[in-house]
Each structure stands twice: as C-alpha cells, then as structure tokens.
TrEMBL record:
Transmembrane domains' residue ranges: 12-31, 43-66, 87-115, 146-166, 178-201, 221-245, 257-282, 317-337, 358-381, 387-408, 429-451, 463-487
Keywords, alphabetical: Membrane, Transmembrane, Transmembrane helix, Transport
Keyword Membrane: yes
Membrane topology: Multi-pass membrane protein
CDD domains named among the record's database cross-references: SLC6sbd_u1
Major location category of this protein: membrane
Organism: Ammonicoccus fulvus
Lineage: superkingdom: Bacteria
Annotated localization: Membrane
PROSITE patterns associated with the record: NA_NEUROTRAN_SYMP_3
Protein name (Swiss-Prot/TrEMBL): Sodium-dependent transporter
Length: 501
C-alpha cells in the first residue's frame, strides 16, 4: 500500500517536537518541588535509576511501537493483536483528560504573564490567586464562569485548533521549531538572572544537599518513577503517535537518548533556577529555605513565585520570563496531547486531518472550558490530575509492558526493529527492563497509591466528590476504551488489521 501518512519535515522536526512534548509544566513546576521534598541532592540517585531502568526503556518501547506499526495507539495496538485495541483507547482517553486541565494551567500562566507588567497580585499573592483570580468556591460543580480564566483558555484552544489543522509538518513541526529554541533562550536568561540574586547560593545548597536517609523511604523511589513517567510523556500514547510520523529509515534510539537527555537537563536547570530564587526569598525574609512554605504544585508557580517577583529589582521582567516559559513549555506539550487524540479519531473513522482536528479541539475545548473556567476549576483540576497521573498512567504502563512482552511476545521483534536503523543498539537487557523490572516496580507503586487514596482520601474532599472527579476519571477512561473499541472501523484494511510492518 502506498504511504499517504503525514511525515515530519526532517529528523530535527521530530526531535524538537518530542522534546516539546517532554519539556512541559512538569519540568518547571513539578520537578523542583518533588526533588526537594524527596531527599534533595539524594533524590538524583533514584531519579537517575528511574530514568535508566524505566524511563528510557519505555520511551524506546513507545517509539518502537509507533514506528513499526505506524499509527496512533488504537490502531497501533490493534495491528499487534486485534484484542489489544482497548489499550490504545485507554491511552487516548487519558490524553483527553490530561489535555482538558493542562490547557487551564497554560491559561493561568498567560494571565500571570500579563499581571507581571504591573505586579497585579499585590502583596498577598495567595489571596489574589485563589479568591480574586480563580474565585475558588466549594468543591461543587459550578457553572459560574470566571472570565479572567475563560478568555485565555479560549485563546489556548483556538491556537490548538489552528496548529492541528496545519498538520504534523507545518503545524506541530513549525510550532516547536520556534517555541523550543525560544524557551531555551528565555529560560536560560531566567536561570542566570536568578543565580545573581542575593541568597541564590543558599537556595542551591538547600536543593543539592543530600538527605541520604531519604533513600530508605520507598515513597521517594515511587516519586522518582512517577516523575520520570510524567516528565518524558511516556505510556500516554504520545510518543507512539509522534514516532508514527517518522520516516521508515530513521535513527530512533539515538533521538530517544537526545530527547531524554534534553528533558532531564531542562529539569535540572529548572531546579537550579527555582531554588536560586527561593534562596533569595529566604534571604529577604531572613530565614532558611527549609522554613519556606508553598514549594510544590500550582502554589509554587502562582503564589510563591509572584511573592518573590514582587520583592525583586526588575521583578516585572523576571515574572514575564518565568510565565512566558510556562506558556511555551505548556503549549508544546498540549499540542502533542491533541495530536494523539486527533490521530486516533482520524484513523478510527477514516476522516481527514481537518475534520478530526476540528471535532477534537472543539469537543475538548468545550469540556475544558465547562469544567475548568468556573469557580470550581482549581479543585477539580487538582483531583483529576492526581488520579490520571498516579493511577491512570501507571496502569497504562504496566498493561502495555506486560501485553507487549509477555502476551503478544513482541519484545524481540521490536528490539530488532529499533536496531535495524538506529546507531545506539538495544541489547536483550531492554526486554528484561521493560518486561520484568518495569511492571514489578510500577505494580508496587500502583498498589501503594490505591491503598493510600482509598484509606486516606484526598485533601479532605468529600467522598462523593472524589468518587466523581477522582475514581470517575478512571471509570471514564475505561468506558472510553470499551465504547470506542466497539465502534466498527470504517476502513476494511484497518479492521482486518493485516499489516506488514
Ligand atoms: N511531559 C510533560 C511535562 O513534563 C507532561 C505531559 C504529560 C505532556 C503527558 C504530554 C503528555 O510537563
Ligand atoms: Na518533562
């Protein structure tokens, strides 16, 4: 059959897009806080081990599946075994869920970019963020729109629509070609500026001084594996989709190593920048970094940082650089999510890119605006994020590894496929890591999380709320996998799943 599939313009297009997907909000607002609270300097050890034993091997697995079976997750898995299609929809469903809240955070960063001009948040950024900007209400489903959030969110969705319609090479490829270099320049400037702030070195000290005892804590290891998964965007079906647009003869493993290295470097850089800034904050307050509060999650970026920015000479510029970085990093990740969903729909219903792009971005945009631009947005986001990342993605990774290696027995074939065109050769160790170590470590993580969430609940939210937005998220993804699998394929050659890779 002739190949009408979209393709990246060149190898660099693919690599930049893959880096764009990997480098995201997770690097800037998640990594520094996670590392700090999980042993600081000592965290680098579990982090590196997680990267080498699970991160890179599963990244290669995603690449191999996408490149060999040349499709988005549902069709790629179907081509491996007809009954495996639901796993593809499970990943697509997760992308749907993550995309709708990721867009909200990008929108907040856009607003805060503008607020940086006049330091709009004043001297109580916590109250400003929660009460004035987000207008957070009780954890109920509210339909009261918050215009300050709704408008930037709508802009994000319009941008997604336009880029999707322009396609893989001219839309996504070009977007990353501009945004990624820009992000590197802006973020580097930000980190250099931060290093010259008084107290910066104390911040780095706090960040890098190892707490060796942390290594004995299984939660620290769990945190390292979870961070690596989210951060590399693996087991979401994104890298499967992106790799499916690579030319047949493309060096897959080497680009994988470049992407993994770039992502981790960016993470370290973010840790340095963030902690240098926090060192300055402690210096101003005449205290220690360890005494500071609000170092994780949305609070770090939208409350703690604004506070520091307000105390800094030239804070406006610093704020603009910081929030611009969040927007750039976020947009290039969100577009990878959108392409994953759009390509799945495109193949299943045999519709063209334009139609799929329109349907997917309008649908996701509408749901996203409905759920996250209202006064209950922040709380819903927090809950959906917890369940999709700590349960959904881990489950997806476990099932994917076990099915591919043990049930479908494709390990050897995929390894040979990778090695056929790549310069970095993958040895049998790869199958062991993906097939045995991965599922064992991840299985342990999953059980641990499920038990904690069931016995302790989450953030004290009411049970019905956790049921709807937490477990409901997972139930939703399961329903998506069943329903979409049951819909018949429009093209016979896809439903037969005959595929000569
Ligand atoms: N890897 C991205 C980050 O670090 C997050 C992401 C997850 C992006 C899943 C796309 C899909 O922020
Ligand atoms: Na990342």
């Amino acid at each position: 059959a002739q190949e009408s599939r979209e393709q990246w313009n060149h190898q660099a297009g693919f690599i930049l897009a893959a880096i764009g997907s990997a480098v995201g909000l997770g690097n800037i607002w998640r990594f520094p806080g996670v590392a700090y609270s999980s042993g600081s300097g000592a965290f680098l050890i579990p982090y590196l081990i997680a990267l080498l034993t699970a991160g890179i091997p599963i990244l290669f697995l995603d690449y191999a599946i996408g490149h060999r079976f040349r499709a988005a997750p549902p069709l790629a898995f179907r081509r491996m075994a007809k009954w495996a299609e639901p796993l593809g929809w499970f990943q697509t469903g997760l992308l749907f869920v993550i995309g709708i809240y990721y867009a909200a955070v990008i929108a907040w960063a856009m607003s805060y970019f503008v607020f940086s001009f006049d330091l709009r948040w004043g001297d109580d950024p916590a109250t400003f963020f929660v009460s004035e900007y987000l207008q957070v209400g009780d954890p109920v489903v509210s339909t009261t729109p918050v215009w300050g959030v709704l408008i930037p969110m709508a802009l994000v969705w319009i941008l997604m629509l336009v880029v999707l319609l322009l396609g893989v090479a001219n839309g996504i490829g070009k977007l990353n070609m501009i945004f990624i270099p820009l992000l590197v320049v802006i973020f580097t400037a930000l980190v250099i500026r931060a290093l010259f702030l008084p107290g910066a070195l104390d911040g780095l000290d706090a960040f890098f001084t190892p707490d060796w005892a942390a290594l004995a804590d299984p939660n620290v290891w769990i945190a390292a594996y979870a961070q690596i998964f989210f951060s590399l965007s693996i087991a979401f079906g994104i890298m499967i989709t992106y790799a499916s647009y690579q030319r047949r003869k493309a060096n897959m493993t080497s680009s994988g190593l470049v992407v993994a290295f770039a992502n981790s470097s960016f993470e370290l850089l973010a840790g340095i920048g963030v902690f240098a800034t926090l060192g300055f904050m402690a210096h101003q307050a005449n205290t220690q970094v360890s005494e500071l509060e609000g170092l994780t999650g949305p609070i770090l970026s939208f409350v703690t940082f604004p506070k520091v920015i307000a105390e800094m000479p030239g804070g406006n510029i610093f704020g603009m650089l910081f929030f611009a970085s969040l927007v750039l990093a976020g947009v290039t990740s969100l577009i990878s999510i959108m392409q994953g969903v759009s390509a799945s729909v495109q193949e299943k219903f045999s519709i063209d890119r334009i139609k799929a792009g329109l349907i997917v971005s309008i649908l996701m945009g509408a749901v996203s605006l409905f759920l996250f631009s209202t006064t209950s947005g922040l709380i819903a986001l927090d809950t959906v994020d917890m369940w999709s990342n700590n349960i959904g993605i881990v489950l997806s990774a476990i099932v994917m590894s076990i099915l591919t290696i043990w049930i479908m027995r494709r390990g050897r074939e995929l390894r040979i496929h990778l090695n056929a065109v790549s310069t970095f050769k993958v040895g049998p160790w790869w199958t062991v890591l993906v097939g045995i170590l991965g599922p064992v470590v991840l299985g342990f993580m999953l059980v641990q999380r499920v038990i904690t969430l069931i016995t302790e609940g989450y953030e004290g939210y009411p049970g019905w709320y956790i049921g709807v937005f937490g477990w409901g998220t997972i139930a939703f993804v399961f329903i998506v996998s069943v329903v979409f699998t049951l819909i018949p394929w429009r093209r016979k050659e896809f439903s037969d799943a005959q595929f000569n890779a």
